[in-house]
Amino acid sequence: MKKRLSLVVALLPLFFCNLRAEEVWPMFRKDPRHTGQSKFVGPTQPTLKWQFKADSAIFSSAAIDQENRIYFVSEKARLYVLEAEGKEKWSLPLGGTVHASPLVDKDGTVYVVTSLTPDKGSFLAIGAEKNKKWEVKTTKSNFSSPVQDSSGTIYVGSGDGCLYAIKVDGLIKWKFQTDGAIRSSPALGFNGEIYTGSTDGSFYAISPEGKLLFRLNCDSPITSSPAVGPDGVVYFGTKAGFVYAISSLGKQRWKIGLSGSIVSSPAIDFNGRVYLGMGNFLVALDGAGRTKWLYRAGGIVESSPAIDQENNIYFGCNDGYLYSLDRQGNLRWKFHLGSSCGQSSPVLGKDGVIYIGTAEGYFFAVGSVKDRP
After folding, report:
1. Mean pLDDT confidence for 263-275
2. What is the residue-averaged pLDDT of the chain?
3. Which residue, 31, 35, 36, 211, has fewest beta-carbon neighbours within 10 Å?
4. 151-180 pLDDT tens trace
5. Taking the complete model, does pTM exceed 0.85, yes or no?
6. Which of 49, 23, 27, 28 is nearest to 38 (CA)?
C-alpha cells in the first residue's frame, strides 16, 4: 500500500503539468512544457481550406480552444477570434503592437501581451464577451508569450527584465528580476518550476514561489524559448548559435555549436528528438546532442516547428512556404502562402488543419485535399 501511495505521489507533478497537454492548442508551443506536440495528424496532401485577411502583419502564433475556435493577434494589436470555418466570431482592438502569442483558458478568457511604446506595455485578460477583465502594466515593451499552470497562474516575461506570476484575478503573485529583457517565453517543468532565458545571457529556473533555483551563464542573449523533454531535460538555443541541454537541477548535459543565431524555439517529438530552426536550416538533434540531419529551406527559419502524432514536422519560412518533413528529414511537401511566414509558428487543430499567419496579414488554414469542401 505504501509503495502504491508513493508511486501516486511521484506521478502527481507529471499529471498536473500535463493537465493542459490534452487540449487542442491553448498556448504558444501547445502545452506548458512547450513541446510543440499535437495528438492530431496533419495534412498528407496540402490544400488551402480558407484564408482570412487581418488588419496588419501576423507575427503571433495562434491558440485553439476545445471548440476548435482560433485566436490570434495582429501586429496592430487586434485580437481575432475565428470559427473553424474561417468566419470571424469577433475581434477587439487592444492598442499598441503585438508580436507575442495569446493563451486561451478553458473558460474562454484570452491572455494577451502588448507593447504600447518602448517604455510601456501590458498584460491583458479578455473575457469571452470581449470584456477586459484586468490589465497589468509594465515599464517596458513585451514580446514574451504567456504560459499557464494547473492552478491558473500565468507566467510571462517582460522587457523590464522581470518574470511575472499573475493570478487569474490579475493580482501579481510575485515577480523575479533578471539583468536583461525577457523575450523568451517561459516553459514549465514537471515539478512546476519555471524556465526562461534573458538577454543578459543567462538561463533561469524559478520555483513556483518565485525563488531562484539556478542560473546558468550562457554568455549570449537568449530569445529562443525553452522546451522540456519527457525526462525533464530542458533544451534551448542562444543568439550565439549554441543549443543547450540541461537537467532540472541545472547540470549541463551537453552544449553544441551551430553555424547561426538561434531564435526559433525547439520542438520535441514523441520519441524525444529535438528540432529547431537555425539560419536557413531545420536541425534535428538526438537526446545526446548529435545532429541527425539538417534540411535546407529556401529562406531563414525563425518559425518554431510543430509535431503531429506521427512525428511529422511543420514549420514556416521567410521564403513564403509552409514546409512539412518526415522524421528522417525528407520533404513531404511545401505549400506556398505568398509572403513570409517565418515568425508566426504553425499550430494544428483537432481536424488536422494547420493554421499560420504571414507578414502580409493573411491567416491561412491548410488542410488535406480529401477534407476540402
Report:
1. 94
2. 92
3. 211
4. 999 999 999 999 999 999 999 999 999 999
5. yes
6. 23
pLDDT band at 342 (very low <50, low <70, confident <90, very high): confident
pLDDT band at 371 (very low <50, low <70, confident <90, very high): low
CATH of 30-61+271-368, picked from 2.40.128.630, 3.40.50.2000, 3.40.50.2300, 1.20.1290.10, is: 2.40.128.630
Q: What is the mean pLDDT of residues 256-266?
A: 89
- Domains of the chain by residue range: 30-61+271-368
Q: Give the residues across from 94 on adjacent strands.
A: none
Where residue 14 falls among pLDDT bands split at 50, 70, 90? very low
**Res. 332: pLDDT tops 70:** yes
